[in-house]
Write a structure and sequence with these properties.
With 332 residues, the chain is an alpha/beta fold. The protein folds into two domains: 163 residues, Rossmann fold (3-Layer(aba) Sandwich), CATH 3.40.50.10950; 144 residues, Rossmann fold, CATH 3.40.50.10750. Helix 1 packs across helix 13 and helix 6 packs parallel to helix 7.
Length: 332
């Protein structure tokens, strides 16, 4: 938990406000109580004020907003219509979503600067969380896609230098982009490097993973990785990135030196970019279960403001960790 405690300390410096729209979920309430106790962020809960106040240990230390009674609702209906009128949004649809789906009201609070970010997904599918974020928040400037990452913390690990210690990696994309094109893969790599730098305050060393290292095999999937490498280097010349690299060549120093002796990344990577979601999702779950690693995510990247998803199998501590990450993402 040192990683999360470090994030909490940093988040406390910036004091951001994070929306937790799933107040009907017990884990969300437990997380809100922990966050209030640890005092590293301000929390907004969405829902019935009386019901939520009964569940919260210190209701005077959280902000509770019921869209059905809020003065903001009419304002957000107009905002939503303006944002999505070209997609057929009208007053009836906008009001229905804002009144009945807390994800949309939460995203509207973030867009309106009443909150700095939102964390949801304990009881909502990833697609629903991301959809609300995209429709109301939108993608960041110079970013074409929204992707996701996991922070993976492996115990007793000598690889993956980050945050002043070993065993910390950023895995991407393991949750959103199923089969990225070369351009999308390059964007995922660039966004992931920015995320690593923001969270860890250290320089990312990005490996584009493959079943091949430096031409040890030939396949169209390898060619895609090489094209992505060229695109990423062109778009961000200062980025420390290399590929294609097998996993062992990416993180094990002696194997990196053997398979890719001229690479500055091989053997030292801390940001691992998977060629598709199959590899990424399988990879992070293998490490999480077999190595008993902590896995925080999926954390989204590429939106104008942070809207982050949770696994529906999460616990309250996972939500607390996601809130700390979101608070740091919200800093400029």
């Amino acid at each position: 938990m040192d990683f999360v405690n470090n994030l909490k300390r940093k988040a406390k410096e910036f004091r951001k406000t994070i929306v937790l729209p799933e107040s009907v979920d017990k884990r969300t309430i437990e997380a809100a109580n922990i966050i209030v106790k640890d005092d590293f962020a301000d929390i907004i809960l969405i829902g019935d004020e009386n019901e939520i106040a009964k569940k919260i240990d210190n209701p005077d230390k959280v902000q509770i907003i019921d869209p059905k009674n809020s003065d903001l609702t009419n304002k957000y209906v107009e905002m939503f219509i303006k944002l999505r009128k070209h997609k057929g949004m009208n007053e009836h649809k906008a009001r229905n979503l804002l009144l009945n789906d807390p994800l949309y009201f939460g995203a509207a609070l973030v867009r309106d600067d009443k909150a700095d970010g939102m964390v949801a997904g304990a009881i909502n599918a990833t697609a629903d969380v991301i959809r609300a974020g995209l429709q109301i928040i939108g993608t960041a400037e110079n970013t074409k896609i929204v992707s996701s990452f996991f922070v993976i913390i492996v115990p007793n690990c000598n690889f993956g230098l980050g945050y002043g210690s070993s065993g910390i990696f950023l895995f991407s994309d393991c949750g959103l982009i199923q089969d990225p094109s070369d351009e999308e893969l390059a964007q995922i790599a660039i966004s992931s490097a920015k995320s690593f730098r923001q969270l860890m305050r250290e320089e990312p060393k990005v490996a584009l993973l493959s079943h091949s290292t430096y031409g040890s095999a030939e396949h169209p999937k390898i060619e895609k990785v090489l094209r992505a490498l060229a695109i990423a280097k062109n778009q961000d010349p200062d980025l420390q990135i290399d590929g294609e690299l097998q996993l062992d060549a990416a993180i094990v120093p002696e194997i990196g030196k053997s398979k890719a002796p001229d690479s500055k990344i091989a053997g030292n990577a801390n940001v691992l970019i998977f060629p598709d979601i199959d590899a990424g999702n399988i990879g992070y779950k293998l490490v999480q279960r077999l190595a008993k690693a902590e896995a925080y995510g999926p954390i989204t990247q590429g939106m104008t403001k942070p809207i982050n998803d949770l696994s529906r199998g999460c616990n309250s501590k996972d939500i607390v960790g996601a809130v700390a990450i979101t608070a740091i993402q919200a800093t400029k």
